[in-house]
């Protein structure tokens, strides 16, 4: 099967014009998939809605035409691509890779060649983000540095140091001349672009844990996003480390109140040990997370935004109860082994809906019309999920299906 | 095997001819290690430093990188001080010291179990197991215990085999050897527990108690095998000596050392390890935990090898600067490596089939690479070796002939597995 054939469902639906159907996370369903032969590492949709770009456990960046399923291979990196971002107008694509390089590509070129490969970091380049004005890039890497680059000439314009452990992600504030970075130990640093210095550090110890058995730390941001107005920052990662070497920790998304410089929510999950690898704000007032479960499966979670949360009574009445699967009974040893802050009823929230995924999610993005989600999976597939009611089948199709059955 | 002419020569190795002569005349029992020979070896002050990367360090993220290949992972490789030899980019400091080490990239233990593989690597034996419980290998001694017995004939106040680890793994390390050769466990840079004389016992009373015990031991020994009482007496004597040297374990470490080695536990443990070797300990094992990365293999190796690399390279440099590599065998090893296949958790699982270790110092031909794996790292493609071959090699490097026998209260037991040979290319 070739790549185009592999895009076997209705790819045209993936970014088709819509007559504004009602967004309902409980109607989430898969509408398309794009097959690659290696596990994917991340994904990003271009702002114009034409392409999905993915990284994989190989040396290439991949572009998928959402309408046709056509795959284009972008070569130039020497290691896995970890992070992808676009310029606001969608003309440029940027990729950060474990080789320490950040690639600059023309998004829509027939076969994009790297216009520039920035030698961004000594050791892996973990993350790249584009400033709202589209003129600057921020990157972070395993040299523990945060670097800011001029996109036009590829020159470094600023360098920030201060993280004591590896920074995992960076994100520009959408309205202020500041940006954030978060490291292994959960520390979120706010940097001022004009003054060229750190503004403050917001500690998020809930997002890191020390594995007492194996004597090592685990934590850090696996994805970050600001709300469009900049009032909230979401960071996806982990919490409650039990045995992180075996994948036993819980996923977590924290929400930070930008003005108050304070964590205001711990968005948790039910019966799920693993990592939250993606987070997006939905304009209808909920937060979407994507994660990978220890056993190889995944999930999309949907949490209310803080200002849209139902009252406690409503929440209790409508809360999704875990299905009657055999509940996991935590041993005393496991309880004792948990490190880092535990539950905090004032901050903790559970999702109002969980959509189970067959395979681990390793990256998440949302289409510009906020109807669909793109997920990079560990089985090599990028899948598109729609958050609206599935289209009614035409009577003829239904009859055919019934006959075949 | 690429030879490095700058390697150390094992100047004082007892020749096989001399050894056999001593064996037949002193013991009157062909093949047993005679006491005179043991002292001769000990006089040369051979020592062993074991750096144990517990849990199974990934060969692909350390000694045998395959960047850009299907299963190679995201990290790149870097050149080393040995032309043509590349190791993982996660080991930049060690890369500069590779001329002091040799790599074995072709280990196949034919097993993937922590306990089974650890025992194989430590004891050089791999007898079939029932479940997870050793049936026969349980009685064989660890390398450190063998070294403590045959290399540590000096009147030292330190135990012969000291293991510094922040976590407890309980093993019968002495096996059928006398218990005084078992590992002496230190949980970091602090004195062992219960080393102080109780406050309510005066020095005078303490001496009197010891004298009484010694007298009773003599009477007891008259009707029993000498070795039983020797082991008991040796334990008491060592405890007394350790009480006098308590400060050695808890002394504040030199700030300059901490700056060079690092301030984390592994760095502090390595500084203590160096001190213990300088003070005459025969075998010092320093364990660095955190390599059993079934999940997040790459992030964990970045963090763990980040700790290991600078510290180990500094330690190796110090041993070289102080002339200690001439008489100290250095081993960097695990119980196994990690699968080339990357699982859905970004992890690598247990893999004893094609992995690597590093050796250097006394008796080792440095700057070389023995064996290789195929392009994907899934199989040994040249010069396959296992724990038995390596056990022979370690002993030969410090001048102990593994083809000889232990005398265990009259029973003759081969020191190394008689079915295998050392890796001759590794030996200087």
Provide a concise account of the structure shown.
The complex is a heterodimer of chains A (405) and B (428). With 405 residues, chain A is mainly beta. Chain A contains 4 helices and 31 strands.
How would you describe this protein?
The complex is a heterodimer of chains A (405) and B (428). Helix content of chain A is 7%, strand content 46%. Chain A is mainly beta. Chain A is globular. With 428 residues, chain B is of the alpha/beta class. Chain B folds into 2 domains: 16-189 and 266-426, Alkaline Phosphatase, subunit A (3-Layer(aba) Sandwich), CATH 3.40.720; 191-252, no CATH class. Helices cover 34% and strands 16% of the residues of chain B. Chain B is built from 12 helices and 18 strands. Chain B has helices at residues 16-27, 35-43, 92-95, 114-123, 143-151, 203-221, 226-244, 246-250, 255-261, 265-278, 297-321, 387-397, and strands at residues 47-53, 77-79, 86-88, 101-107, 129-130, 133-134, 161-164, 184-186, 283-288, 328-333, 337-338, 350-351, 355-361, 369-370, 372-373, 380-382, 405-408, 411-414. In chain B, helix 6 packs antiparallel against helix 7 (226-244). Chain B starts with 15 loop residues before the first helix and ends in a 14-residue tail after the last strand. The model of chain B is unreliable at 1-30, 34-42 and 128-136 (pLDDT under 50). The chains are: A mainly beta (405), B alpha/beta (428). At the A-B interface, strand 19 of A face helix 11 of B.
Question: What is the secondary structure topology, with strand pairs?
Answer:
The complex is a heterodimer of chains A (405) and B (428).
Chain A: H1 3-6, E1 29-35, E2 40-45, E3 51-56, E4 61-65, E5 71-74, E6 81-86, E7 92-97, E8 101-106, E9 114-119, E10 125-130, E11 136-141, E12 146-150, E13 156-160, E14 167-172, E15 178-183, E16 188-192, E17 197-202, E18 208-211, E19 216-219, E20 223-226, E21 232-243, E22 248-257, E23 262-267, E24 274-282, E25 286-293, E26 298-304, H2 312-318, H3 332-337, E27 348-349, E28 353-357, E29 361-366, E30 372-377, E31 381-386, H4 395-404
Parallel strand pairs in A: 23-27
Antiparallel strand pairs in A: 1-31, 2-3, 3-4, 4-5, 6-7, 7-8, 8-9, 10-11, 11-12, 12-13, 14-15, 15-16, 16-17, 18-19, 20-21, 21-22, 22-23, 24-25, 25-26, 26-28, 29-30, 30-31
Chain B: H1 16-27, H2 35-43, E1 47-53, E2 77-79, E3 86-88, H3 92-95, E4 101-107, H4 114-123, E5 129-130, E6 133-134, H5 143-151, E7 161-164, E8 184-186, H6 203-221, H7 226-244, H8 246-250, H9 255-261, H10 265-278, E9 283-288, H11 297-321, E10 328-333, E11 337-338, E12 350-351, E13 355-361, E14 369-370, E15 372-373, E16 380-382, H12 387-397, E17 405-408, E18 411-414
Parallel strand pairs in B: 1-9, 1-10, 4-14, 7-8, 7-9
Antiparallel strand pairs in B: 2-3, 4-13, 5-6, 10-13, 11-12, 15-16, 17-18
């Amino acid at each position: 099967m070739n790549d185009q054939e592999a895009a076997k469902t209705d790819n045209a639906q993936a970014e088709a014009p819509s007559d504004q159907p009602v967004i309902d996370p409980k109607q989430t369903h898969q509408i398309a998939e794009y097959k690659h032969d290696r596990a994917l590492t991340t994904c990003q949709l271009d702002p114009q809605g034409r392409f999905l770009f993915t990284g994989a456990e190989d040396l290439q960046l991949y572009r998928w035409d959402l309408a046709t399923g056509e795959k284009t291979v972008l070569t130039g990196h020497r290691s896995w691509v970890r992070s992808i971002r676009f310029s606001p107008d969608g003309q440029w694509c940027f990729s950060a890779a474990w080789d320490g390089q950040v690639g600059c590509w023309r998004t829509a070129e027939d076969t994009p060649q790297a216009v520039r490969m920035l030698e961004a970091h000594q050791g892996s380049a973990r993350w790249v983000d584009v400033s709202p004005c589209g003129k600057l890039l921020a990157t972070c890497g395993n040299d523990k540095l945060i670097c800011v680059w001029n996109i036009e000439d590829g020159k470094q314009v600023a360098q920030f140091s201060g993280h004591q452990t590896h920074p995992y992600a960076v994100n520009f504030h959408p309205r202020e001349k500041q940006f954030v970075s978060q490291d292994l130990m959960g520390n979120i640093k706010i940097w001022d672009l004009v003054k060229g210095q750190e503004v403050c550090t917001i500690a998020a110890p809930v997002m890191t844990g020390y594995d007492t058995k194996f004597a090592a730390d685990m934590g850090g941001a696996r994805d970050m996003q600001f709300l469009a107005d900049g009032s909230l920052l979401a960071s996806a990662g982990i919490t409650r480390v039990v045995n992180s070497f075996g994948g036993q920790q819980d996923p977590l998304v924290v929400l930070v109140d930008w003005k108050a410089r304070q964590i205001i929510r711990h968005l948790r999950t039910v019966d799920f040990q693993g990592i939250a690898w993606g987070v997006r704000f939905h304009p209808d007032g909920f937060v979407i997370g994507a994660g990978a479960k220890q056993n190889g499966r995944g999930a999309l979670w949907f949490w209310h935004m803080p200002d849209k949360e139902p009252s406690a009574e409503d929440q209790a009445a409508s809360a999704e109860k875990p299905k009657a699967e055999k509940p996991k009974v935590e041993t005393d040893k496991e309880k004792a082994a948990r490190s880092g802050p535990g539950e905090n009823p004032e901050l903790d929230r559970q999702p109002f809906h969980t959509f189970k995924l067959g395979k681990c999610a390793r990256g998440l993005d949302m289409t510009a019309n906020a109807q669909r989600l793109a997920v990079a999976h560990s089985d090599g597939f990028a899948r598109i999920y729609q958050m609206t009611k599935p289209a009614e089948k035409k009577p003829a199709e239904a009859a055919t299906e019934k006959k075949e059955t | 095997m690429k030879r490095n002419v700058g390697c150390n020569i094992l100047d004082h190795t007892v020749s096989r001819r001399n050894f056999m002569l001593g064996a037949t005349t002193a013991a009157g029992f062909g093949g047993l290690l005679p006491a005179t020979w043991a002292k001769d070896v000990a006089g040369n002050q051979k020592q062993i430093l074991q750096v144990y990367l517990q849990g199974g360090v990934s060969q692909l993220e350390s000694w045998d990188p395959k960047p850009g290949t299907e299963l190679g992972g995201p990290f790149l490789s870097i050149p080393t001080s040995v032309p043509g030899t590349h190791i993982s980019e996660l080991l930049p400091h060690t890369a500069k010291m590779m001329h002091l080490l040799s790599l074995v990239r072709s280990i196949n233990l034919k097993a993937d179990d922590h306990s089974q593989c650890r025992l194989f690597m430590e004891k050089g034996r791999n007898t079939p197991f029932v479940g997870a419980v050793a049936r026969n290998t349980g009685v064989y001694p660890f390398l450190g215990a063998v070294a403590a017995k045959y290399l540590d004939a000096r009147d030292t106040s330190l135990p012969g085999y000291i293991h510094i680890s922040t976590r407890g793994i309980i093993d019968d390390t002495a096996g059928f050897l006398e218990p005084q050769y078992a590992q002496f466990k230190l949980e970091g840079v602090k004195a062992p527990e219960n080393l102080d004389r109780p406050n309510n016992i005066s020095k005078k009373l303490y001496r009197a108690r010891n004298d009484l015990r010694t007298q009773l031991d003599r009477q007891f020994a008259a009707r029993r095998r000498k070795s039983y009482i020797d082991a008991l007496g040796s334990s008491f004597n060592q405890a007394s000596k350790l009480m006098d040297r308590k400060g050695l374990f808890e002394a504040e470490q030199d700030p300059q050392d901490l700056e060079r080695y690092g301030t984390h536990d592994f760095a502090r443990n390595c500084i203590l390890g160096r001190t213990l070797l300088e003070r005459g300990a025969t075998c010092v094992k320093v364990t660095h935990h955190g390599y059993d990365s079934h999940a997040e293999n790459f992030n964990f190796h970045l963090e763990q090898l980040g700790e290991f690399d600078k510290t180990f390279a500094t330690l190796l440099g110090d041993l070289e600067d102080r002339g200690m590599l001439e008489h100290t065998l250095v081993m960097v090893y695990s119980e196994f490596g990690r699968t080339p296949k990357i699982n859905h958790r970004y992890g690598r699982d247990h893999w004893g089939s094609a992995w690597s270790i590093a050796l250097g110092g006394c008796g080792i031909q440095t700057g070389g690479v023995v064996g290789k794996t195929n392009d994907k790292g899934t199989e040994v493609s040249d010069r396959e070796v296992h724990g038995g071959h390596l056990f022979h090699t370690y002993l030969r490097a410090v001048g102990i002939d593994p083809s000889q026998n232990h005398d265990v209260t009259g029973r003759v037991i081969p020191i190394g597995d008689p079915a295998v040979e050392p890796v001759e290319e590794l030996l200087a």
